[in-house]
Each structure stands twice: as C-alpha cells, then as structure tokens.
From TrEMBL:
This is Alkene reductase. It comes from Kitasatospora aureofaciens (Streptomyces aureofaciens). Its cofactor is FMN. GO terms for cellular component: cytosol. Coiled coil: none annotated. Residues 352-381 are annotated as: Disordered. Belongs to the NADH:flavin oxidoreductase/NADH oxidase family.
Amino acid sequence: MTTTTESLLSPYRLGEFDLPNRVVMAPMTRYRAAEDGTPLPIVAEYYAQRASAGLIVTEGIWPSREGQSGWRLPGLETAAHVAGWRTVTEAVHAADGRIVAQLMHGGRQGHPLNRLLGDVPAGPSAVPAPGPVHVRDGGKAEAVTPREMTRAEIRRTVADHVTAAHNALAAGFDAVELHGANSYLIHQFLADNTNLRTDEYGPGTLENRLRFPVELVTAVAEAVGPHRLGLRLSPGNPQFGMYEADPAPVYRALLAELDGLGLAYLHLTDNDDYPALAALRPRWSGPLIANVGENRDATDRARGEAVLAAGLADLVSYGRAFIANPDLPERFAAGAPLTPVDETHLYGQTATGFTDYPRLTDQPTPERPTPSERPKAPHRV
C-alpha cells in the first residue's frame, strides 16, 4: 500500500469541485423533517453551520414513499421537498460549502406506523429486521415481515431513484450519493440473510446478487452524469441484523462492475471483521472517502490522518464529531479540543442539540467573556 503526505486540511480536487480540505461530513439521520418529509427550516441553518467541511453528505433522504423507513425522515419526491431542500443548498452555498444528497431507500426497514402510505414495506425477501422498532407515537412496536419486492417494484424503485436524483439537482445539490450501506435496500440485496430470492435478482449466482445494485447505480449515473454520483458501501457491517459470511468476493465483483462508470467517489465504511479499505482501495480507481467510525469510537483527527497517510483513502468522513463541532476543520487546524455530543438530543424536531452547538470563536476566553460576564453598559434614558 502506498503512503502519502497529504493531510486532512490539504485541498482536494473532486471532479469539478475544489475542496478546501479532505474532511467530509458523514450522513447522519436527525429526524428534523415535517410529517410530509419536507426538511424543517432549521435544517438549512444546521448544514450551513458545517459548510467549512470539504464536502457535506446529507442525512438519508427517501426517494419515494415506498422507500420511507421512518417517521419525520426527509424525502425528495414532491415539489414541497424540492423547495425545502433548495433553502438548504442555498444556505450552504452562501457559506461557500458543497453538499451532496444521500438517497436512502429503506427496503425492509420500516413499519406501517412510520410510513405515509401506512403499508407494509417491501425488500428483496420476506425477512424481517430485528425488533422492536421505534414508531411515531413515541412508543415501540414489533418489526413487521416485509413483502418480497416484485420485478415490477424493482423496476419502479430504480425509476424512483432516477426521479429523486433529478429532484436533488433541481434543489441545488452538487451531487447525489446512493446509500448502499448499513442495512438499507442495496445492502439488503447484497447480504446473505436478507436476499433469499430465487429469480434473477437472487443469490444463486454472483451476477444475480449484484444485478439490482448495478442496475440502480448505472441508471442514476446515466440520468445525472457519473461525475455527480457517489456510492456508499459497508461490506460486512452487521448493523440491524445484517449478515455477510464472506464479503470479499461480493464487493470485489461489485467494484469491478462499477469502477469503469467514472463515479464521483466511493464512500467506504471499514469493518472490524473485514478490512474493506485495505482490501478494496486497490480495486477502485476513482476518489475514495473512508469512514472508520461506524460501530466504533468516534473518529478523531489522528485516526483520519492515519487513513490518509496509509494511502487507504483520499478523504475521511466524520459523523459524531460534526454533530457537536460545526466548525470541525477549524478546530483541527487550531488543535482545539472537541465538544462532546449530547446524545439525549440526537433526534427530535427542535434546535436543541442540533443548531445550538458553539463554534470555537463563540466560546468564552479570558479575552472574550460570555455575555453574562461582560460589564453592562450604563442605562440611558
């Protein structure tokens, strides 16, 4: 493996974009959408606060109501969704940032109580996710057994992603990322225990197992341009009951199918049981974003720098660190301590734990006391 002297704070040319640094904001679900899936006004402030990232990848956005996995998750299906996201992209661009929309189809992930359609979700096979699941009334319910998607539904799902990708560009996003990781639809077609089909989309042959991911990525790339499309994968990630006995041949073959498309980037999550970065970096000729914090301690600067130094990636994505540190690149540059995450307010509809984390320049110092410590101006009448 080659090594590099590039650092997290060095610039990077990603397609047509000049990134000021290699610190990427990872996608993170925050549940700040209206009931119809339109992002709340505070979402624009949230992402604009983090515009110093080299690149922002949004929380997962459902491409169609059939793909909705949770209540108050955002969508990109309707004119209202497009208008809502346009306020977000305009705010980020005004702050000199770059932002990518992550399209996330839930597949089997979902519950009738959490879906606008009120129906049972569909996935590759009728295999339920582990339960119980959180539902919109604040309680919990047992997971439902999903329907097996028909061939017609698979074709419609591909078309829905194409439409949503067009909607993303219409909303002002700089690019689109397909969520093929962490137990969502693409991952469900790839994994051993969630794809039990016996047709041409089943695991009978490696070609069949890869058919849906390849068809989906190819269709969206042709629709919006491969230079505006990224893909996130998490080989071997056991999250939400996923099982892959041997990820290596599956993901090697998948990258062989997709590498020639000229995608904007591959966003790859490492795993303790399968060293995806080391195994797959040599098989990907385009830009690669690494995520090394999934199911592990939050990534710090040293771990990110080590990934770049080892030549395992071109950029590194940060999740929890960006929640509590909207100016994360500036903190890295200053060698400043990171604010810890308040995990009691990760989800909800308010600004608390969302847009109220201070920037480094907002924090009190002996030279810059807090407002309550500052001498009051004399009262004038």
